[in-house]
Amino acid sequence: MTPSYEARIARANQLAAVYPSSAQLLSFYVELARFQKPVFSDLQSRQETDPRALLCYFPALVKLISRSGTEPLRNFAALNLQNSDAQMILLSAVWEHADAVDPAGRFYARVLLQPFAEYLASRGSGVAIAGEGSRCPFCNARPVAGVLRPEGHGAKRWLACSLCSTEWPYRRVLCPGCGEEDKDKLPVYTAGEFPAARLDACDTCQTYLKSIDLTKDGHSVPVVDEIATVALNLWAEEHGYAKLETNLLGM
Question: In the list 3, 201, 239, 244, which could disulfide-bond 7, CB 3.0-4.6 Å?
């Protein structure tokens, strides 16, 4: 179910024209996806399983960010990414899901770890482990989005990993943040501007997960549509909800 980098890039370019307010974010994402694509291909061709192999890509990534990134991202690289030891410590911390990682550092690590983790996940059977766990069954990262896929006369919910892009089935009436099961405490919010996107919120833990409904738009690429609908994030945060996990852009 993991979309190719070509599909992600094409969808981001398409949505940039549909949602002008998100065009800048989507253009930046396209640059990152174009950077990640050859990293994935290189790791795949070499059958590389050692994360130290990612160190050689840091200079090109820093150069990309110096051209297109924000000032906080540029400053972080100048102060913290000057040698391979620092780079490896950062990669290890994010790979192990450490919470106390600077958001800018997390960004750099995730840009490189994502194609690495996707490659490792692709070496398996390609079938997610069934179960009720709210963390990825492959790499233990939190989900970045929900995905509603057609099944029978309705839709089944899957969660999409924020790191390796694995998808795994998850009950629809169940909060992935705290396990709340009371449907009255699990409101769903939608906006007409984004017909295929919804916010699955929880009034118990005050978190939310954005879901992309493929029964309403089968052309959606969840990881991209999730970024394009950033206006929903802003609405949720204004109403007191915190996102369960940020996306690649830290949003």
Answer: 3
Whether 223 and 162 share a structural domain: yes
Claim to verify: residue 99 and residue 157 sit in the same structural domain: no
Q: Is residue 209 part of a domain?
A: yes
| Other CB atoms within 10 A of residue 14 CB | 15
Which residue's structure tokens are 């993991």?
2
143 touches 134 (CB < 8 A): yes
DSSP β-bridge partners for residue 160: 145, 167
Residue 130 lies in a domain: no
Q: Are residues 113 and 155 in the same domain?
A: no
- Tens-digit pLDDT profile for residues 127-160: 445 445 899 999 999 999 999 999 988 899 999 9
Pairing of strands 207-213, 242-243: parallel
Structurally, the chain folds into a number of domains equal to 2
Rounded-to-integer distance, Cα 121 and Cα 58, Å: 22
* Ramachandran region, residue 85 (left: φ > 0; alpha: ψ -120 to 50; beta: rest): alpha
Residue 138 within any structural domain of the chain: no
| pLDDT tens-place string over residues 232-242 | 999 999 999 99
As a whole number of angstroms, the distance between CA 124 and CA 237 comes to 37
Q: How far is residue 28's CA from residue 151's CA, in Å, rounded to a whole number?
A: 34
Both structure tokens of 110: 């995730």
**248 in any annotated domain:** no
pTM assigned to the model = 0.94
Query: Which residue(s) pair with 151 in the sheet?
Result: 154
